Amino acid sequence: FDDRILKQLDEWPAFLLRFFPIQTQLGPEKKPFERKLKIKASQFFKHLGEAPLLGKRGYLFHLEQTTQDLDVQKLNLELENIKPKPITEPIKKPAQRIDLHIEELVQDPTGMSNSEMLRIQLETFEKNLNQAIASGMHEITFVHGIGNGVLRKEIQKRLSELRNIQYFKDTQKDKWGYGATLVRIS
């Protein structure tokens, strides 16, 4: 895991796990119950171990705190009354071509570290890609420049991990060299 994922893991809210035991043998009835689980990145990897019954390695957590019996009928009532929240603002369709040169993204990049610049460029890339996907665009071009290729490689790595990307390729070589990537969204 890289630091970015671990930082996000710390920001996750606690999980609320609900258990509905299925009885396969005669005996006392096991009631449904719930547990809260807050995962902290610093502790997460300490929970790797052998999963009982499965015989495989996995992350194991004790769920014995905050026991609370569940009222299944009340829970069903709550679920029936949940109404989806309306989207507050319409999805904005980004421009067909997004320039990721740092000078285009911040007023004065002087004094910024390389990692700071890369973070801003990648945030802009992800925001515009997500908006392009959500708004139904078929293509979008990201101009990242040639440089030493760090931004280009990171963009292409992230694109290769997404299922709804049909393909991506270097584009407009006559204008940008290898400094622009065309993304075809499926």
Automatic annotation (TrEMBL):
Q: Which Pfam families match?
A: Smr (PF01713)
InterPro entries attached to this UniProt entry: Smr_assoc-like_sf, Smr_dom, Smr_dom_sf
Q: What Gene3D superfamilies is this protein classified in?
A: 3.30.1370.110, Smr-associated-like
Q: Where is the Smr domain?
A: 124-185
* Sections of the chain in a coiled coil: none
Provide the protein name: Smr domain
Q: Which organism is it from?
A: Algoriphagus marincola HL-49
